[in-house]
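Aim 2, interim progress. The first record below pairs a target sequence with its structure tokens.
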Amino acid sequence: MSFNNRRELLFVYSVKDANPNGDPLNANHPRYDSETGQIMASDVRIKRTIRDQWLREGKTIFVDAEPKTMTARVEELKTALSVKEGKEAIQHCLDARLFGVTYAYKKESFSWTGPVQFKWARSLHQARPELVQGTGAFATNENSEQRTFRNEYLVPFVVLGVYAVANQNAAIETGATEADVDLLAPALWDGTVNLITRSKIGHQPRLLLEIIYQEGFQGLIGALDEKVRLEKDGSPLDTEAQLRLRSLDGVTLNLNAITESLTPLAEQVKAMRLRHEKGLSLVGLAQLRTLLGDKLQVQAG
């Protein structure tokens, strides 16, 4: 049975001395909005983080990021799951049920719009990518004493906000269940912790907020990532302070705009789950408690 309760999700994470999401068509330069000065990460990158965590947990997924054709992947799944049809195999895949899939293989073809949709992540402040240079491990040829050079981009420090909606209407087609969507937020947090590669180490989850609405509710607040603010001593960071930011020491995340937007919808909220890093400075948590009472579940760490 598909899930019946709409959800909204906000995830805030930081990246230090790493590349949040390189553009392969632009020398792997961090994705960047030159007009606003914001670092960006695609929805595909966010979903890759989640899928990789589900793989670690032994979940069956369709897009496993291995270099293979769709034909090979479908045949793998049909064999592993002991099914005859590709659609039946894909119905067993958690990522297809939540994120959707476009499928065409032999005489089968169909397209599912995923009930879970992510916006591109954007930084909560202005930041500036930097080009760093170094030497390689080996020389260019046997007679050379000069090692190769390498160039790479990184961001000294950035805090990004991710927003997603879980739409119960689309779940009817894909068959995504309540148990499926419950696996999303933990995989986003834990998957970010497990981004331990040379280009991704330095990712750290800071805040995860999930609003679960009453059955039948068709609305949403929208753009939760635009409703959280970085502040210092009660004031927004000016441009210079944003560009100098290298940690969250002395910096507060202000959630008051979320509370204000949620107030007219409080009766429509079934539950809110809020997980935050231990020691994270938050403004607005008390106001959320007052608004939601025991509907608010808070976890530190």
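The second target in this work package is listed in the same format:
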Amino acid sequence: MSEADTSPDMMKVVRDHEAIDAALNRLAQEIVASHETLSDVALLGILSRGRPLADRLAACIETLTGTRPPVGSLATTLYRDDLRSGRVPATIGNETHFDFDVDGMTVILVDDVIAAGRTVRAALDEVMDYGRPQRIQLACLVDRGHRELPIQPDYLGWLLTTAADDHVAVRIQEIDGKDAVLLEPGARSAVDEESE
């Protein structure tokens, strides 16, 4: 089931615009507190919703420090371990793009939801194809659990306790026209499971 196939009437809003803004501000504070300097920090948003979240995090960091870290995009589709299964979500029109060198940098991957960890694993592989960062960290808005790989966020908005077949969707103003974290119990399919 894709997000487009999920009826909005069946989904419960578990976090609203104000909660998302507050979480991003808190994540920015944690990132700033964890780094002596931001001169070697860059954010890479995992497409599609990780990119606007990365842009917002960079703006929050700039408000706090006066320094805006560079931001780029990662399209991880070709790096996924389930590419041959045919279950990888389409990312037509979405491409990896950043105009900075990752060598020696602290790269913070930004994503909306982490579940199995397969998308983040693909992002790690892709980043390493572009260079050798000093460190790679992960910032996620929502962790819904059900990990299949030993990958954990360094910076996290919320941990949502969900059943394996629940569907969690993040809506972002820049893409969806509104901000919200939505939960639909018992609506998860194999395609959703592979896409996080």
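The beta strands are 12-15, 41-46, 71-74, 106-114, 135-143, 155-159, 167-171, 180-184. This observation will shape the mutagenesis plan for the next reporting period.
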